[in-house]
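Sat 14:20. Reprocessing the chain from the morning session after the first attempt stalled halfway. Input below, unchanged.
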Amino acid sequence: MAGEPPVDVVCLGESMVTFLPSRPGRLADVPAFERAIGGAESNVACALAAAGHRTRWVGRVGRDGFGDHLVETIGAYGVDVTSVERDPRRPTGVYFRTAADRATDAHEVVYYRAGSAASAMSPATVPYETVADARVLHLTGITAALSDDCLALMHALTAPRTGRPLVSFDVNCRPGLWRDGATSAGPVLLELARRADLVFVGADEAEQAWGIGDPAAIRAALPEPAVLVVKRGADGATVHERTAAGTDTAVHVPAPRVDVVAAVGAGDAFAAGFLSATLRGLDATARLRHGHLLAAAALTVPGDLAAPPRRAHADRLAALAPTAWGTLQLGPGWTGDDQEGRTP
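Finished this time. C-alpha cells:
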C-alpha cells in the first residue's frame, strides 16, 4: 500500500490444515491426530516473518473453520494475510500423515485437496498487484500441479515483465499430485524453473523429474536462472551463481549433523534461510549456511514450522571457520543461545 515500505517476500500457494499422528504407526492404527498447518509457501512466509522480514502470503481458502484456522495461525506469525481470498463454495484442503520419514516406505500421507479453494486460483482471481510490490516472489512447483488454472497463474507470474520481483522457485516435485506422475511433472517444472531467477531443487527431485542428479548436470540443464541451489540432504548443498562477467561459480557447503526429530519442513526452512541471507546481501557460503541452519531448526521439532535461532546466534554459527562448521552437531532446543554441540 502507498506509504508503506516494500514487502520483502510474497509467498503464493496452497496452505492446508495438517493432522499430525499422536504416535508412530500406520494411518489405520493411529487413534488421534493433532491439528497443525502445512503448505510449502506459507511455511516459508512464516519462517521469514519469524526471522524479522516483512512477508505476505497470497492464497485461497474456504469460508469454513479450517480456513479461519489457517488465516489466523499464519497471521499470528506476523505474515500479512490480507490478500488471502475466501471461497464460499470450495473447501479448505486438509491432509493426514504418519510420523515416519517421508523418504521411507512406511511413510503415508493422504490429501483431501481435490477441488479445494486453492485449486481455483488463476490469473483472474489473483491480481498481479498483490505480488508486484515485493522484493522477492516465492513460488513452488506444487501450485502448478493443482489445476490448469493454477498452472496458468504460474505462467503469468513467471512471465518476463518490467519491474518483476526476483522470482524464487522451489521445484518441489510431488509426483502424486500430477496426473501421470513424474512423466507429466518433469517438463512443466523444467519450464517454470527456466523462467525463474533463483531456483531450489533437491538432487533426488531432479533425478525423479529429469533423470539427472549431479549438481553440474542439473546446472547444464538449467542455465537460465542467475542462482541455482542443488540440495543433497545430509551431504549439503551447492549454489551455482552467474557473475556479472557472465561466468558461473559453484560453492558447496556441507550440512551440519542434526539429531532429527521429524524429517518434514526442512526444504521450506532451507529456502527461508537462504532467502533471508540473500535479502541481507550475504555471500554464497553464508547463504547456504543460513539455509542449513533453518533446515536444522525444522528437523529438530515434530511439525513443519520451528522457531528460528536469533539472528545474532545464526550469524555467529554461519561465521564459524570451516573446521568448526564441520564439527557442528545440532539437536532439539539448539535454537536457544549456546545450545549447539560439536562432535569430536
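DSSP finds twelve helices and 17 strands in the chain.
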